[in-house]
Each structure stands twice: as C-alpha cells, then as structure tokens.
Design a protein that fits this description.
By secondary structure, the protein is of the alpha+beta class. It is 21% helix and 47% strand. The protein contains 2 helices and 8 strands. An 8-stranded antiparallel beta barrel has the order 1-2-3-4-5-6-7-8. A hairpin with a 5-residue loop joins strand 2 and strand 3. The longest helix is centred in the first third of the chain and has 26 residues. The protein is globular. The chain starts with a helix and ends with a strand.
Length: 148
C-alpha cells in the first residue's frame, strides 16, 4: 500500500513539473501578444501567431494611437490595400527557429507608407522582443514588450 501511495505521489509530482515546464517553455517563444511603441509611446498591440503554412505572422489587434487608428492603408500592397489598421497583418512569412525564440526571412509592413521591409525578430528576454527591419545594411530596431 505504501508503495502505491509513493507511486501516485511520484506521478502527481511528475505531472506538476511537466505542466510547469511546458508553461515556462511556452512563455519563452515569440508567439503571443506584444506591445509596440513608436517614439516612446504605446502605439499598438501585435499578436504573433503560426499560420497554416507553418510560417509566422503578426497583426495589429489593438491600436492605441488615435491618428493611426483612423487611417486606411491606402498605399499597402495586395490584399491589405485600403484596409483599416485594426487586424491588419503587418508581419508575414517569418520562418521560426527550432527553439521558437527567433524568426527571420519575413517582411514587415510600414502601414503609414505601404512599404515592406525585410525583418527578423528575436526574444531579448522572456518579456522583451526585438524587431529589426532592414534594407541592405541599413536597419532600424524596435523593442516590443510582452502583454500580460
């Protein structure tokens, strides 16, 4: 009887440890909701998610900048032309790394100009994501914070 109780405690402990580790591992990924800042002010909430094609995408699910929220993406290419900013897909075709802590090979859309730039993103730490947009050797890097 004692060994059965001990076995059950071991199974229960293993389950709790597994659950804790999987939750921790999930939080250590680029997937999720991120606060984007422009000129030091919170401008939007970006949701990064896996597409059906195995690549990763990001869309603006909340717009905090009143001017940006009113805009229509008149200069955007393709299916995003003349769309509103809310739920606009701004990150496309990112290929995620094996550890799910970075992605590259995709494009980011600048909705105010309609231009797309090569981009890569990576976790700086559990609550900080870096997004770099670049053309050739010129680049700009933004810091996004994990939304709670």
């Amino acid at each position: 009887m004692k060994s059965l109780c001990s076995f059950r405690k071991s199974i229960w402990s293993f389950f709790l440890i597994s659950l804790t580790c999987s939750t921790y591992a999930y939080s250590q990924t680029i997937v999720g909701k991120w606060k984007a800042y422009e000129n030091g002010r919170l401008s939007s909430l970006i949701e990064i998610y896996a597409g059906q094609d195995g690549r990763y995408y990001g869309k603006m699910i909340e717009i905090y900048d009143a001017d940006l929220a009113k805009k229509i993406c008149e200069k955007c290419p393709g299916d995003r032309k003349n769309k509103g900013m809310k739920n606009l897909v701004i990150l496309r075709d990112l290929k995620i790394s094996a550890d799910k802590k970075s992605a590259d090979g995709g494009l980011i859309l600048a909705p105010d100009t309609g231009k797309e730039y090569n981009c890569k993103i990576w976790l700086e730490d559990n609550n900080t994501l870096k997004m770099r947009a670049y053309v050739g050797f010129l680049y700009g890097t933004r810091t996004w914070e994990k939304a709670q």
